[in-house]
Amino acid sequence: MANKRQLKKYMKNMAANLAGETVFILNYYDGIDEAKANDVIDKIFNLLTEKINDVSVDFDKTCKDSFAGDRKAYDEQVPVNAIAATGTPEQALFTGAGERDKESISNMRTIAAAARKAGMEVTELIVPGAGHDWHAVQAVWRPGLDWFGERTGLGEMTKSLKEYPQVEVLQ
What global pTM score does this model have? Predict the structure, then answer.
């Protein structure tokens, strides 16, 4: 689980990476407006400076603000606890994570194990080369929509999950 310091470090690295990509584009692509590129970099760092102080992973505060201080209610909504309490074989879990996002993969595997224990149908996907990013979301979303459509009667899967080139099926 990430702490506040790690989250702030991640935000700073992400901002630095975005700024670096902007500088790269400015230097290696023709026709890029330097003033606009510099403006993008300024906006990235202004946003970082403004928002980094808002970072809070204080779970006691979350419990207080979102669950009126009721720790039992907070704990009940944790996915593995909710699945253990209410999961049934009629339910299913479809989940995925980027290959480089070890924390999400660990969480995915833990939640999937709880779902299997409850008798649920479980599908887990890994997106090769992706991290915790929109590439992973988009790659999982494509087969996920087909899977959902098939499962709910809204459509048919025209190919198996293993035929989607952007993902690897774990289960």
Answer: 0.63
